[in-house]
Write a structure and sequence with these properties.
The structure is a single chain. This protein has 518 residues and is α/β, with parallel strands linked by helices. It has 3 domains: 187 residues, Rossmann fold (3-Layer(aba) Sandwich); 186 residues, 3-Layer(aba) Sandwich (Rossmann fold); 102 residues, GMP Synthetase, Chain A, domain 3, CATH 3.30.300.10. 32% of the residues lie in helices and 24% in strands. The protein is built from 14 helices and 19 strands. About 3% of the residues have low confidence. It binds xanthosine-5'-monophosphate (XMP). Xanthosine-5'-monophosphate binds next to loops.
Amino acid sequence: MTAGQASTGDFDKVLVVDFGAQYAQLIARRVREAHVFSEIVPRTITAAEVREHDPVGIILSGGPASVYADDAYEIDPEILSLGIPTLGICYGHQVIADGLGGEVVRNDVAEYGRADLKVTGSSLLLRGLPEEQVVWMSHRDAVSAPPHGFAVTAATADSPVAAMEDRERHIYGVQFHPEVVHTVRGQEMLKHFLYEACRARPLWTHAGIIEQSVDAVRSSVGDGTVICGLSGGVDSSVAAALVHKAIGDQLVCVFVDHGLLRKDEGVQVEDTFRSSFHMNLIHVQAEDRFLSALAGVTEPEQKRKIIGETFIRVFEEVATEVSDARFLVQGTLYPDVIESGTADAAKIKSHHNVGGLPEDMELSLIEPLRDLFKDEVRAVGEELGIPEEIVWRQPFPGPGLAVRIVGEVTKERLDILRAADAIVLEEVQRAGLYTELWQSFAILPAIRSVGVQGDGRTYAYPIIIRAVTSEDAMTADWARLPYEVLERISSRVINEVPGVNRVAYDISSKPPATIEWE
Ligand code: XMP
C-alpha cells in the first residue's frame, strides 16, 4: 500500500480471482456497485495469501481456458476448504466442479450469447427471481454432474448444471455470466451471494470512500507539506480535491505546462483551481525543457519514459522550493495498476504514472485513487462538489499530445495537432456527443500526402480523427460519428489548419488497436 491510499481494512472485502478473461474487472465493478469492496487477485494466489486478505467472499472469474487444456488454470485446492463463501462464474464454475469431484464435459457445440435459464431447485442465489429468465453464456465445456453435496438449482438446454450450490460449504457456481447486463437479473444474484452467503455489509459508498481517504491522508502526512501534480483532468483533480479536503493549505498543487497540452488548457486550469478551489497553485512553464528532451526521439516507449522522468524531475525541483515537501500526490487508478502488470495481466504500455517513475525518486507517493475504477472516481468527484465540466471530462493521457504525434515531437507539429484537435473537440461538443464518447481527439501521423488546394499542389500532413466509446478504456469501439459531424471536422481542419490537406477516420477497436496511437 502506498501512503495515502485509503486503508480498505474497514470495508468487507471480496476477492475476485482472475483467470485471465476481461470479465474479472467487470465482476469487481459489479460487486462495488453493490457497495462491497472488491479486489482482483491473480489465479496463482495461495490459500495462505487469501487468508491474509481476510475476505468475506471469493469469486472465481470466467476465463478463456478449458479445464481439459494442457495449460488449464488451477487454483490452490486449499482455497475451497477455507470455509469462505465462494462463487464460481463460467470457468470458475467448472474449476469448482472439477476440483471437488464433479464432472465437466467438452460439448460439441459452444453455447454463446442468450440462453433461457430454468430454475429447477431451491436456491439462495436465485431466490425470489422468476423461474424462467434470460442469462448470457459464453462457454464450450459444461458441468454435467455436480460434486457430492451440491444441489443443481438451474439448467438451460445445453447446460444441465447451469447453477449449483452447496449451502453447507457456502460454495456456489453458475455457468452463465451474472455480471453482464444481458443477464437481466444478474446483479440481484450477485447481491444474494454478497449479502446472504457472504454477509457482506454494504459500506463501500462514495461518502465512505471519501471519509476513509481523508483519514488515511491525514494520518500518513501529519503536518508535512504535500505536492500534487495537477493536470486539469478528472483523476488529478479528484485526487487534489480529496487531499485538499484532508489537509487544506498543506497541499501545494503544481501545474506543469509541458507544452504537450491542448489549446487553452493552461488558462482553464488556472481559472478553475486558483479561483474556485482556492488551492495553492504553482504554474511551471517547462515547454522548452520537454521539447529539447524529446528532440529527435521517435520511439513511443522512449518518449513516454522521457516525459515521465522529466515530469518527476520538475516536481522534485519545485519540491525543494516548497519547504519540507515530502509527498507527491498522483491520480493513479485501479485499471492503471492492473494494466501495468501488477495483477497477472500482460504489460501493454508503460503508463507514465506507474511504470515510468525513476527509481531514485525522492518524494513518497500518495495515491488516493489507487483502489478506484473511473466511474467511482467521477462519483467521488461529484460528491466532493467538483464542477461537472471537470468530473465528466474525457480522459487525457499524462504524456499529452506527444503520444498522438507519430514520429518526432516538435513545436511546429504540436501547433498543427493542437489546432486540429480543438476543432474536433468543438464539433463533437456542438453535436452534443462529448459525454457519450469516451474520448475524441486528433492524431498527427508521420506521413505526408499530395493534395491540391487552390491552384497549387500541396504535400502536407493528414490528420486522423479518433473517437471511441468505452466503459473503462480496457476495451473500446470506434464511435459511429454521424457523417455530417465528420464532414464538418474534415472541411474545417483542412481549411483552417495550415500544413494539413487530408482527414481520415480511425475505425479500429481496442483490442487489437489501443485508444492512443502510441
Ligand atoms: P490506450 O492507448 O492504452 O489508452 O488504449 C487507454 C487509456 O489510457 C489513457 N492513457 C494514459 N493515461 N498516462 C495516463 O494518465 C499515460 O501514459 C497514458 N497512456 C494512455 C488513454 O488516453 C486512454 O484513455
